Amino acid sequence: MPDSHDPLRSLFREAASAAETRTGLPPVAVIELRGERVRRRRIAGLAAACCLVLAGSGAALAAFLPESPGPVLPASTPSPLAPSSGPTPTPSTSSSPTPTTFPSSTPTMSATPPRHTTAPPGAPTGTTYPGASATSTRLPG
Question: Strand ranges (DSSP E) for 37-84?
Answer without folding.
Answer: none
